[in-house]
Each structure stands twice: as C-alpha cells, then as structure tokens.
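Hi R.,

Quick one: here's the Xanthine dehydrogenase family protein molybdopterin-binding subunit sequence you asked about.
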Amino acid sequence: MATLNVGADGDGDGGDQQRPARGIGASVPSADTRAKTEGTFPYAADLWAEGLLWAAVLRSPHAHARIRSIDTSAAAEMPGVRAVITHADVPGAATHGRRIADRPVFAHDVVRHHGEPIAAVAADHPDTARLAAAAIAVEYELLDAVTDPEQSFGAAPLHPDGNLIRHIPLRYGDPEATGEVVVEGLYRIGRQDPAPIGAEAGLAVPRPDGGVEIYTASTDPHTDRDLAAACFGLDPDRVRVVVTGVPGATADREDPAFQLPLGLLALRTGCPVKLAATREESFLGHAHRHPTLLRYRHHADAEGRLVKVEAQILMDAGAYADASAESLAAAVAFACGPYVVPHAFVEGWAVRTNNPPSGHVRGEGAMQVCAAYEGQMDKLAAALGIDGAELRLRNALATGDLLPTGQTVTCPAPVAELLRSVRDFPLPSLPKDTPEEDWLLPGGPEGAGEPGAVRRGVGYGVGMVHMLGAEGADEVSTATVKVVGGAATVICAAVDTGQGFATLARQIVQEVLGIDEVTCAPVDTDQPPAGPSAHGRHTWVSGGAVERAAKMVRTQLLQPMAHKLGMSTELLQIQDGRITSYDGAFSLSVAEAIEGKELWATAQCRPHPTEPLDDHGQGDAFVGLAFCAIRAVVDVDIELGTVRVVELAVAQDVGRVLNPRQLEARIEAGVTQGVGAALTENLRSVAGLVRHPDLTGYALPTSLDAPAVRIVRLVEERDVVAPFGAKAASAVPVVTTPAAVASAVRAATGRPVNRIPIRPSAAVAVPNS
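And here's the predicted structure, written out as tokens:
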C-alpha cells in the first residue's frame, strides 16, 4: 500500500515531484482546457442551423391539479408560430423514465408537480415562442397537494402506480440485542439542486429518412436515444443523439422531458428547432437530491463499540420515480456507515409526493445517511465521554468485514488510516493569533457579528459510496483505439462531464502505445454504448475498455517485430516513446514503428456482476466502495447563528492516482459542493410550489464561502478488480463534508444540529454551553 502525502498548502506538490510527465500518473492538462479558456468550446446553447425555429414549453403553475381543458387555438394563430403540440401529438409512448417509465411527456389529465410540461411551441423567434406558450389556455381544477412524505402513505394515489415506489427492510443479526448506552436522533436533509453551470439547451434536426438528430449535453446518450425513440414512435436507429459540450455535471445533466418536446417539434415542422431553458425552467424540470427524513437509534457498549443500529429512512421522490429505487438501496445499505455493526435493522421507503422531482445527484442516498449516522456518533461520544475521533476509530470498518447487507468488503477499506490522518493533521491557528481587524468573521469578510461571540468547533465526518451501478446493473462499456498517420484516436461514448475521462483516455493510450498525439472522437449514439456518467464508472469501465483496446493495438504493432526477432511480444516494451527488447539489443522509436501503418482494435470492459437486495436487504449489491474522512474546523457566531468553514482536512481512499492535479481538483470541487449542502443549498417549496427558482434565491457557495481544503493524505491501495486500481473520487467528499461541518458546529455550540442545511437557529449556542 502506498500513500500520497500532500503538502500543508494542499497544492499537491508533495505528490507531483515523483510523477511521470506523461501517461498514467502524470498531471496532464484537461483535453478541453484551451477551448474553454479561449471561448471556442461548443456548448449546446451555442448551436445553430439554417432555417432554425425556436421552442418554448408551457409548464404547470400548480403542484397538483386536474386539467379540465387545453385550448391551443390562440397560440396556433399567432404570426410566426409553426407548431403547437400537446399530449395528443405524441405518436409513441406517452410516458418515459430512465429507470421506470412513469412520467408523461406532456401532462394531460393531472399535473403532479410545479413546472410539469403541458404543451410546447415552435416559432420563428424565441420571443414569439414564449408569447405563444403563454397564450395557451389551460383550465385547472386545483387539488390538494401532498407535500409531506409521511402523509403520502395514507393519501389517495397520486399516480396509477401508487405512492410507494420502493420499500427495503434490512434485517441483520439479532433483533433482541441491546447496548449499555442508547442514543436516538431525528434528522432532516434538504433538497439540493445540481445547479449546472449552464442551463439545459439543445437542437433537434429532422432527417430525410423521417428520423431526427438531437444535439444536446447528454450524460447518457444511448438511454436518452432509446426513450426518445419510444416516445417518437421510431426505431432507435432513426434517432441519433449527439453530445455537445457539457458545461459541467454533478447529476443526470439533462432532463429528458426537455429533450422530448424538442424532437417532437422538429419532426412536426420538418425544421431544426432549438430550445434554451431559462434558469427557472432548469430548476423546475431536472431532478434534485432526495429530501430525506431519518430516525435513528444507536446501541453501544461501555467502551463505545457499536452493538446495534436501528433506523427508518423516508425519501421524498417527488412526483415520479426516476432514480429513487437505486438511491434508497444506497441509503439503506450504508445506513450504518463505514463502521462494524453486528446487528442492524433498517426500514427504508421512497414515496411519491407533489414536490419537485428527485433523482440522481452525486452521492445519492449515501449523503443523507452519512449526515445522520455521524450525528449519532457525536451523540454517542458525548454520552460516553469519549473523543469523537477515538469513538469512530474503535468502530472503523476494514477489508474483510461485513456490511449490514451481508456483503464482504473485499476492496481496500483504510478507514482507520484515513481518520488518523485528518485527526493528527495540525489545526489552523486561532483568530486570536491575528490582528482583530484581519479576522474573517462568520457571515463574510464584513461579518456583522462581534469577535467575542465567535466560537470555534472541530468535528469529523467519515463517509462511503459505492462505485458503478448496483443491484445487478450491467456496467459494460465499449471503446475503439485507432492509430493512423502516427496519431491515435479513441472512440468511446463515455461523456466527459468534467470528471476528466477524455484526459484519462489520452493518458492510457500514451502509456500503452507511447504515442503523444491522442484525441477523443466526439460522442454520439452511432458508437456502441458506454453507459451513464455516474459513480466513477467511466474511469473504471470505459477506461478499462480503452486500456484493453490499446493493448490489442500494441500487440498488433509489436507482433511482426517479435516474430522477426524470434521472441514473444512480452519481451518487448514501450517506454519513453521507444520500443526496446528485454536485452537492449533492439531499439526503435514508436514513431518509426507506426509510420505508414493503420491499426485499430475494439474492446469491452464489464465488471463482475452484482445482485439485487433480497426481501431482508441482503445481497452482494455493489462492485466496489470508496471511503473518505474529513476534519472540519468552523467558526460560529453564537449570537447570529452564522457559520464560517475555516478549514477542511481531507484524507481519501483513491486506489491509485491517475492524474494528481485533476484528482485534487475533483476532491476540492466535491468538498465545495458538500459545503453548499451543509450551509446554504436548499430548494425551498411551499405547498409544492418552488420559491425563488433562480441563482439569487438558491444560494450556491461562492469563492468567499469556499474554505481552505487541505488534502492531507491520498491512500493508494489499489483495488485489484478495478482497471488501474483506481476508485471514484468526487462523490465521497460530497457525501462526507456536510456531516463533518455539522459535527464541528455541534462542537462549537452544544446544539444537536439535526437538519441539513444548517439553519442559523441551530447554530445559536445553548446557554452556558
């Protein structure tokens, strides 16, 4: 096992000094860096086509209502309007969904959430399209909105499939087991929005064969193509999805309900149609993190070792299922955290409500339970009079231990090492060590509080996530590597959403073939599927497919030389741009060897299979796990309840560092997203109606809110079943950060802090605390 120690300034220099300058392990710049800095990166909002029409979507102003009538005549008669479509104009499947097809393309009898699409318009000018959409007359009969997920169980069905999406009862060990110390807690997690940098945009172009091409920033193009084809009533080969520049993604980047009207309008008008969502439409349409209610009871012995965990987890799915079943599985499976628990009994439910839709957001399921079980660990530490870090160390999970699902942890699980690393890292200096005028008070550089009301707290969070899909998901990916004219091209439908896959693919080919000039072909659905960009899967399965294809090309390149030299290809190596024999007698540059040759190979990568959780929540549901420990230091104004995160010390289990600076950036970004979830990000709604669906009402953390992030240790213990041994990097710090910040606020104030994001009232210290 190797560890990468990063300097105290967190700049990664401690690890870069011994790293190669190219290939795997090098800090190779991102493939799109130059285009983005020069402003030439082709974002979906920049698309254009001859004869372009503009689209607009009419969305419901209500959270729950019956549609009595839809009158489109006024819109259709407006000058410049080319088409108006409703549910009656959907030629194929009327419902869609990436996991469960329960969501209408257009609402026609009932609207189930604020912002649900009802109709769409294509016109020759964007203002005309918006005016026409507003001119569509819809008669509603308002219905009572079910917004409390606890009330969903007894409410009338909101959907033909009922209100319950999934129930998972986990049973592990002896239900009669008890501990000497018992603590209980009730926790609430808010609705975090992925808040992509650029709102959804796309262009649909009709094809001569009656099909359509959709240009958009999809993160899962083949799934989007298949559901679009079903709704359009077309064979999948007549629908092509082309991935344009993705302006960052921390979830399912595109709302399918956005793409479908676009394609339908292009097919109806026979013209290219463009749709660029407003920020409000983006907030209303795409999926958010599941708001979750969690009840916990922890049992421990007098030494602080966990005996039993009991939990109830209720996830608010919003109006439709989306990824709720998968999110619930992660929440239930990780409900006890990265700790050894001999007995566990967990009930998990995901239910429909009339709230905004929930779905895949980084660390779904895992983040919600992490905030709760770490709150419980703080309560246990206080009840036992044990240091919080020490209590966690006494219960730390390790390789070979069992999860409450009965699955053995076969991958590296250096939980104790991670926790010790952050615990032993030097604490930042106290404010009293600097002049008072230089203090950065909670609330910003010009904080309104008084220095005497500021208290410092130190807390811990330890989190875990699963990598790849779970419960039997087929995680296959296909890649082709071509070498022509001394340059290599990678063809793989893995979308680079900012996680750096395109850069990694270049590094892999450089490493295997010794070729410097490597590019990745644009992604579209004419290529074989590679699956969604989530759970670090492209580093694993798509990177693995690229590696296998590159090695096949390597064999094609070396075989004639090996045959001529009378040796096997294993006795030839490619290093520093040269091909040499084991004895040094033969040496040839790669450039000379590939001159005039055209070589190519296609390969697949498919991890070992998993299985669904059974009726007792048992099963080998996950391919691999990743872990992270964070120590948070916060300053809290105990009179105003404002919080400033001073420093986050991070130690992470990464398997292998493939690109040091890119990895550091991913961790810092994940931590910052976690700070937002901890303190500011909550898409609020009243009676199901979203309040302030914009970037002024939804408070994202800015550079002033970003704390000092100290990456104190990256543990490189390779997972032997993963290509390169690497693990997912960005989700686990998102999962862990809110729990660590909440723990530090508890330490500063003496308050329980049982709600994420943390409200100011929860950060006001109790008297004499």
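The CA atoms of residues 23 and 508 lie 6 Å apart.

Cheers,
M.
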